[in-house]
Every structure is written in C-alpha cells, then in structure tokens.
Design goal:
By secondary structure, the chain is an all-alpha fold. It is built from eight helices and no strands.
Length: 106
C-alpha cells in the first residue's frame, strides 16, 4: 500500500466535512479502524478502500496513489471518475448515449 494513504484519507475527510465516525458508519467499519488507518497503524483491506473511495467521492486509484489529485480536479478527471464509479449501474442505453456524446463533433 502507498505510504500516503493515511494522508489522503485525512485530506478527503476534511474536504468532505465528514467525521471519522460518519465515514466509519458509511463504510461499515469501526471508528477505531478509521483512526488506525489515518494513523498508519493498520492498512485497510481492498473492499474497505473501495467503500471508502465511494464515501469520499474519489477513486481507489487516488487513495492508493495511482493517480494524483490534479487529475481528479480537472473536468476530465471528474467525468472519468464519475464514469468509473457508476458504469456498472448504467444501462446499455445510457452507455450508448454517453459514447455518442463523447464521439459527436458538436
């Protein structure tokens, strides 16, 4: 795991206005576990990281240090993150409409 995972969690908590307790409730872990993740005493399992990314409106790649915040801050980054987080719940028709919008010359 990335050594800065704890810093990213802490930063995203501040940005979102969530408390450690609220994040813990959203992702199904204890407040103590969140505290340990932030203090670097424990590494979250991948399913916890995935749930955390959803709750903090980011990507697992960002939490794991595979992409930086600049990528997420751009409009393209926001769209890419939205599609990545929601594509599994999109219908085929919605996916086609998204592709058509991306490929249109307008």
């Amino acid at each position: 795991m990335d050594a800065k995972l704890n810093e990213r969690i802490c930063d995203l908590l501040q940005q979102s206005g969530l408390t450690q307790k609220e994040l813990a409730l959203k992702i199904g872990v204890t407040e103590a576990a969140i505290s340990r993740y932030i203090n670097g005493e424990r590494e979250p399992k991948l399913d916890v990281i995935s749930n955390m990314a959803t709750a903090l409106h980011t990507t697992t790649d960002y939490l794991l240090g595979r992409e930086d915040s600049d990528c997420i801050e751009t409009e393209f980054g926001k769209v890419r993150m939205f599609v990545a987080r929601n594509s599994s719940s999109m219908t085929k028709q919605q996916k086609k409409e998204l592709l058509n919008a991306l490929l249109s010359d307008d």
